[in-house]
Design goal:
The chain has 12 helices and 60 strands. By secondary structure, it is mostly beta strands. A hairpin with a 4-residue loop joins strand 27 and strand 28.
Length: 1140
């Protein structure tokens, strides 16, 4: 009815009646009009800050007037206020429409129609001025646009602009990438003459991206989040962008996998929750979760021992171009992550990518970063004694208990009977034979971004290329990616957002991790101390006589003790890998009514990995004539979701948002591997050359359906109540428990808006929340599974040794969080404090089964894991002048983990599998990551017992607890110093506490390769301890006897090789200069900056001393072991950023 364009007039008085009847009709008409005037003329109404539309409805409620108007009038959304009593409708309409381009007319006595004022001849004017940043530097290329028209321009090299024929009542919109847009009336000549734009980073703390891609004011959140601007990630660039967050976010713990270029990282927030499951944070890009899984040793299989290491496939987040990132927001607690359900039980890292900018015109950015990476070898090796035992030289051993190296001539180690070099060589120290094996790596990244946009449609396209060479010979990476994002407002009610990203990555020679024989670090570290590196570079020879074969040139023929020539490993155990990845997303938002909208979104995350592994003949314990392995891996994730949102301002005091949504998630992973075990012709790498072709396949499939609802109610902008609820249905759980519901509730109060604070105390907020999050499990645990292996006539099928867990339930985490945010002195000083306490129950635990059952073990739900802790962020600007400023931020986090209970029969669970040197466990009453090793036997007084042979007595099993893998606390301190256009950034990060057991040190000490084994080479060591009788030990032994007992590979005494993992590191330092617009002059640049940086430059403290405590063998739960990790690298780089 309100959209009617015309309205009928009242019927005219009937004619042709008698005079008396006309007179009577006139009398009745006079009476009717009198009554009508009394009814319609006097109105009382009170509205405040309501839209014109809502105000007219309010008048209809308190009177008999009816209003008709075109729903598309923009003025209907304009806020008005009115408080009148017993006034005419004419008086009301005059006040309501003041300042609007609207008038009205009465079609009937109680019918009022809103219409546009008749257009008079439009007055135009010239608008001109200058646009600059907060430092007073002119901004070149800023967009100046007359809203609702095609009239626009951009600023020149002096930041000046001019527009002709601008309507007097028009609004002028000014915008530029990286700055907050502003609007002014065309009649406001004073403000338009000199416009100052503020950087976007200054509002980063005000609005943050939360779950499902929803932006909310940070002051109304009831949980902890922390944001990092995209600019910070580009200052010191890393091939895996998540590593750039280390030290910048409280409660976020990141460890790099020791696998060289393209390697994964372990990401954990607020401790470990799941004993058997995944403890990695969920990665979300533009509101959609992505696959961040990394796997190891696909082609070779794994024996389950952490230190055997494996091949790291890389993770999903490493494929994201840092230059495409607008911001990263870390959601830490269960309340923050609850809307993402099962996958978010360990927290969420939300990445928002860049879009095109409205009114910008065509903008082009180019960034380039080049760095060199030098290995920081901290291992303390000895350079006095050569190969051999008992002081005598032996050319065919890894042990370094031979004679002193004093230049004496000895037989060469070569196993080539036709070796062309000298048959003897001088036995001299080779202090650089490890250092010289490693290369200086390079990393060169180039990114181009092109963006454009009108008020209705924006687009951004980017290209990125990374080329890197690692510190290990033959390790190279080539990565290219392209991304396109389109945003369009198709109509006043329909908006679309579409994005597609493609990446191709090729990595050659990626090092294997841990103690694996293909890890070149293991081979160079165990190389005897007297080997001349140039001799080792001749890594192969061709045999003569009989069968001609290419053989490994090696000091230990046959590869005893897992030994190989390191140059053979990097040249003849050749691994090449390629990943093709597509990430696509599309969404449609329909604004149904004012405040009511529906969002539909779908995304696909797909990648295909292919690998080729060539093992040449004479590789340690491998098939004759070589082996050729091909593997492939496909991962497909499909996410679909909808979200219905209703936002309503009930009154001046109350507003609320109500949301209802649902999602479907489908995950399918398939892996296959084909090896040959033996080639027919030597080193002819083809499947057709296989003597015995063996295949292996894997399958991982999961579905998850969800419905969820959440609401926020805000009172006067300072008190906000958050309530959420979600129900998941998981395909990995049995039907009896595949549906599970979890709620959350949170409350925040801005005290500074409630209580009058002193002038210097400008903001205070308290918040509290409680949430539950569920977590399902891996596929097929509830099913009986079978495997097929080749052999016999048709192969063999065997049943899994795990009993199907038909009564399995989801893990559940209940988490309470409270916090305080305060700011002082005009935001010059701020403090955020959080306390949390989470308890995870229904842990998935494997328990042994009786032999008679036909199964070895089964999974049950039991146990309770608690994580509680505090997080503090202290930030401020101690100095701020027009020319100079200093901003600083310190973050601190402390997490305490306790295994509250396991099961009646199981009190200790090994995380991963048992290892040669240590078992890392979850033990009832202890903490996740407790470390048990073989150690010294002690008496009741704690003294070490020594045998009559002078050697310490040792435990037969790993029963000695030596600490926990997790740090006591972590922190980071960042500082930014700016002087005019010069900016210096310094980041220091630290972890204090925690223990690591070094398998590297154990093996090398057992071989006599470390400096600690020098003491007592000639004897004279008296081990400190007592005999069984209590007498002090006086028996002398030598170093070889001691260290071959304590060290070695198969059963070392882990207590001797435990290190404190505490460190303080100068993580990043960067110096950049942004050229002022006046210097750029007539150059075709709108911006130009140059910078230099350093990364991991030095340790201010490293209690481990001989290795990087943050390097790990994988992303699993077993994080307490160091095993032949790559040296960390010091990086020095330069970057260039140009905009056109």
């Amino acid at each position: 009815m309100k959209n009617r364009k015309t309205f009928e007039k009242l019927p005219e008085t009937l004619k042709g009646r008698s005079k008396n009847r006309r007179t009577l009709r006139a009398i009745w008409l006079i009476l009717f009009l009198s009554i009508s005037f009394t009814t319609y003329s006097q109105v009382t109404v009170n509205v405040k800050d309501l839209s014109l539309r809502a105000s007219l409805k309010k008048i209809e409620q308190v009177s008999s007037y009816k209003f008709f108007y075109n729903e598309n009038l923009p003025e209907l959304n304009q806020k008005v206020s009115l408080d009148v009593q017993n006034v005419t409708i004419e008086q009301i309409m005059s006040k309501l429409l003041t300042g609007m381009d609207l008038t009205y007319k009465k079609e009937q006595e109680n019918v009022i129609v809103l219409i546009r004022k008749p257009q008079e001849k439009q007055t135009t004017r010239k608008v001109m001025g200058t646009i600059a940043d907060e430092k007073g530097e002119p901004i070149i290329g800023a967009s100046v646009l007359v809203k609702g028209t095609t009239i626009g321009t951009i600023t020149d090299f002096d930041g000046k602009y001019k527009l002709d024929n601008v309507p007097e009542n028009a609004m002028i919109s000014i915008s530029y990438i990286g700055y907050q847009p502003v609007e002014f009336s065309a009649s406001n000549s004073k403000d338009l003459a000199q416009i100052t734009l503020k950087e976007d980073s200054k509002v980063l703390d005000e609005v943050v991206v939360t779950a499902l891609g929803i932006s909310r004011k940070e002051k109304n959140l009831s949980y902890a989040t922390q944001a990092v601007a995209g600019k910070e990630l580009e200052q010191v660039r890393d091939l895996n962008v998540v590593n750039s967050l280390s030290g910048k976010v409280a409660g976020l713990d990141i460890s790099k996998v020791s696998s060289g270029l393209g390697g994964s990282s372990k990401i954990s927030l607020r401790g470990n929750r799941s004993i058997s499951g995944n403890n990695q944070a969920l990665i979300v890009v533009d509101g959609v979760p992505i696959d961040n899984t990394s796997s190891t040793t696909r082609s070779q299989g794994s024996d389950g021992k952490a230190l055997t290491g494996g091949f790291d496939s890389g993770d999903g987040i490493s494929s994201i171009n840092p230059a495409d990132i607008e911001s990263i927001n870390v959601l830490k607690g269960a309340s923050a992550a609850a809307l993402y359900g099962s996958r978010a039980s360990n927290g969420v890292i939300i990445i928002t990518t860049k879009k095109g900018t409205a009114g910008q015109g065509l903008g082009v950015t180019y960034s380039s970063s080049f760095s060199i990476d030098s290995p920081n070898i901290m291992l303390d090796l000895q350079d006095e004694y050569a190969q051999g035992s008992g002081g005598k030289y032996n050319k065919n051993t890894l042990y370094n208990f031979g004679p002193k190296m004093e230049g004496q001539m000895v037989e060469h180690w070569s196993n080539n009977p036709n070796y062309a070099g000298d048959k003897e060589y001088a036995l001299t120290p080779q202090p650089n034979n490890v250092k010289d094996f490693f290369n200086t790596g390079i990393n060169w990244s180039n990114s181009v971004g092109v963006s454009t946009g009108t008020e209705k449609t924006q687009a951004r396209f980017s290209l990125n290329h990374d080329y890197a060479t690692g510190i290990v010979p033959q390790n190279r990476l080539n990565r290219a990616s392209a991304s396109l994002r389109l945003n369009s407002k198709l109509s006043k009610s329909i908006e679309v957002d579409a994005k597609i990203n493609y990446m191709n990555q090729k990595v050659k020679g990626k090092p294997w991790t841990g103690e694996n024989i293909f890890n070149p670090v293991r081979q160079i570290y165990t190389m005897p101390r007297n080997i001349v590196l140039d001799d080792a570079k001749t890594y192969e020879y061709v045999s003569t006589g009989g069968t001609i074969k290419t053989l490994q040139h090696h000091w230990l023929p046959g590869g005893a003790d897992l030994s190989q020539n390191p140059y053979w490993v990097v040249n003849r155990n050749v691994r090449s890998d390629e990943r093709n990845k597509i990430l696509a997303m599309g969404s449609v938002k329909w604004t149904i009514l004012e405040g009511l909208s529906l969002m539909l979104r779908s995304s696909v995350d797909y990648y295909h990995d292919s690998g080729e592994f060539k093992l040449y003949n004479d590789t340690y314990q491998r098939a004759p004539n070589g082996d050729y392995i091909l593997d492939s891996y496909d991962s497909f994730e499909w996410n679909n979701d909808f979200l219905l949102t209703y936002t309503k301002t009930l009154s001046e005091d109350w507003t609320f948002d109500v949301n209802f949504g649902g999602s479907t998630f489908y995950q399918n992973r398939k892996g296959s591997s084909y090896s040959n075990t033996e080639l027919l012709a030597e080193n002819l790498f083809s499947q057709s050359n296989a003597k015995n072709l063996v295949g292996d396949n894997s399958l991982f499939r999961r579905k998850l359906n969800s419905f969820y609802g959440f609401a926020q109610v805000t009172y006067k902008g300072f008190l906000t109540l958050d309530v959420t609820g979600r129900n998941d249905w998981s395909s990995t759980l049995p039907k009896s428990s595949f549906s599970y519901f979890y709620p959350s509730v949170g409350l925040s109060a801005v005290l500074s808006d409630i209580i009058k604070m002193p002038e210097w105390f400008n903001f205070a907020k308290v918040r509290a929340s409680y949430a539950q999050v569920g977590n399902d499990t891996d596929p097929f645990i509830i099913n009986q599974t079978y495997s097929y292996i080749a052999g016999g006539n048709n192969g063999y099928v065997y049943k899994s040794s795990k009993l199907p867990a038909v009564d399995l339930k989801p893990e559940k985490t209940g988490s309470f969080e409270m916090g305080v945010d305060v700011r002082f002195f005009g935001d010059r000083l701020g403090l955020d404090f959080s306390y949390y306490n989470s308890n995870t129950t229904n842990q998935l635990i494997s328990i042994p089964m009786p032999l008679a059952s036909g199964y070895q073990n089964r999974f049950i739900n039991a146990g309770k894991v608690q994580n509680k802790g505090v997080e503090i962020k202290l930030y401020g600007t101690p100095i701020e002048t027009k020319a100079f400023s200093w901003t600083t931020q310190f973050n601190f986090s402390k997490n305490t983990n306790t295994i509250k209970e396991l099961t009646e029969d199981v009190k200790t669970i090994t995380l991963g599998s048992e290892d040669f040197i240590a078992n890392v466990v979850a033990e009832e009453g202890g903490s996740f990551g407790d470390i048990y090793v073989r150690g010294f036997q002690r008496n009741d007084a704690g003294e070490i017992l020594v045998g009559t042979n002078g050697l310490p007595k040792l435990t037969s099993k790993k029963t000695v607890k030596v600490g926990n893998a997790n740090p006591d606390w972590t922190g980071g301190w960042s500082n930014t110093f700016r002087y005019k256009n010069l900016s210096l950034n310094v980041l220091i990060d630290t972890k204090q506490g925690g223990k690591i057991v070094s398998f590297t040190d154990a093996v090398l000490s057992g071989y006599g390769s470390t400096a600690r084994t020098l003491v007592g080479r000639e004897g004279g060591i008296v081990f400190p301890g007592v005999l069984d009788s209590g007498e002090k030990n006086t028996k002398e032994i030598n170093a070889e006897t001691l260290w071959t007992t304590l060290g070695g590979r198969n059963n070392p005494v882990g207590e001797v090789f435990v290190y404190d993992a505490s460190f303080i590191r100068l993580k990043e330092i960067s110096l950049s200069y942004s050229f002022p617009k006046s210097v750029l002059g007539k150059l075709p640049f709108t911006g130009l900056s140059l910078g230099i940086y350093g990364k991991n430059l030095c340790y201010l403290q490293n209690k481990a001393g001989i290795f990087d405590p943050e390097m790990t063998v994988g992303t699993g739960n077993n994080q307490a072991l160091e095993a032949f990790a790559l040296p960390s690298t010091r990086s020095f780089g330069i970057n260039l950023n140009v905009s056109f």
